Amino acid sequence: MSPMLRTVNRVLLALAGLVLLVLGGSVLAVGLGASPPSWWIHDGRHDVLVSAADRARWRDHGWFWPVVIAVLAVLVLLSLWWLSAQLRRRRLAEVLVETGDGEGALLRGRAMENVLAAEAETLDGVDRAQAVLTGRRSTPQARVDLALAPHATPSDALHQLSTGPLAHARDSAGLPSLPTTVRLRARKHRAERVS
After folding, report:
1. What secondary structure does DSSP assign to 79-106, as a single string?
2. What is the per-residue pLDDT for 62?
3. Which of 11, 103, 108, 182 has its CA 20 to 30 A from that of 146?
4. Using CA atoms, how far apart are residues 101 and 108, in angstroms rounded to an integer?
5. What is the pLDDT of residue 82?
6. Domain boundaries defined on the chain
7. Under 8 Å CB-to-CB from 27, ≥6 apart: which residues?
């Protein structure tokens, strides 16, 4: 996520939180007995936010309540989409490579993922590999999925991965460390017939 988008995201979150806090706090305060100002949306603890007269005014308009419900449903769906986008771990677009001149160079994250996966697939006992980089560009983290062949030993595959492709990726990018989560799974195969 870009710094500008991150800033906009935080400002919108802060504004939405402030509005909800003020409205919810005022409703709670009035409900507990505080006297609201004359211009406030409700007058006392027994007052309702939408009166019977307000509800009856729109009863003759058959379009009003379906529109209100549709707008609220869209708002809920957009909120859920936004929440899932916030919680989803994003792929790293680029990795900062220290060049020693103080500026550094940028390496495409997808290129590093492809090289890491391709090198992992050359290991003995690994049928297929996938790699994803997450985290920050100066401190990336890797997630590697390995599909092991039937004859593979998981501990050997993990050792080969950490001393081979992961070490090469860490050293070539000039990273002090590359924290990695590895998921191992066995490839399905047909039973062999013994005669």
Report:
1. HHHHHHHHHSPPPPSEEEEP-SSSS-EE
2. 80
3. 108
4. 20
5. 75
6. 1-49, 50-88, 94-186
7. 42, 49
Predicted confidence at residue 144, as pLDDT, reads 92
Q: How far is CA 46 from CA 17, 24, 30, in A?
A: 26, 16, 9
Q: What is the mean pLDDT of each run of 10 residues along the chain (195 residues)?
A: 68 86 83 77 72 74 85 89 71 79 81 91 90 86 89 89 91 87 79 58
Which residue carries 């507990």 as its tokens? 32
User: Which pLDDT belongs to residue 5?
Assistant: 64
* Six-digit token string for 55: 């509800």
* DSSP 8-class letter at 181: E
* Pairwise CA distance, residues 99 & 106, whole Å: 10
Sheet containing 180-186: give its strands across.
126-135, 140-148, 180-186
Distance from C-alpha of 69 to C-alpha of 71, rounded to nearest angstrom? 6
Domain 94-186 has CATH 3.30.420.40: no
129 contact partners, CB below 8 Å, separation of at least 6: 116, 117, 118, 120, 121, 144, 145, 146, 147
Tokens of 4: 């500008």
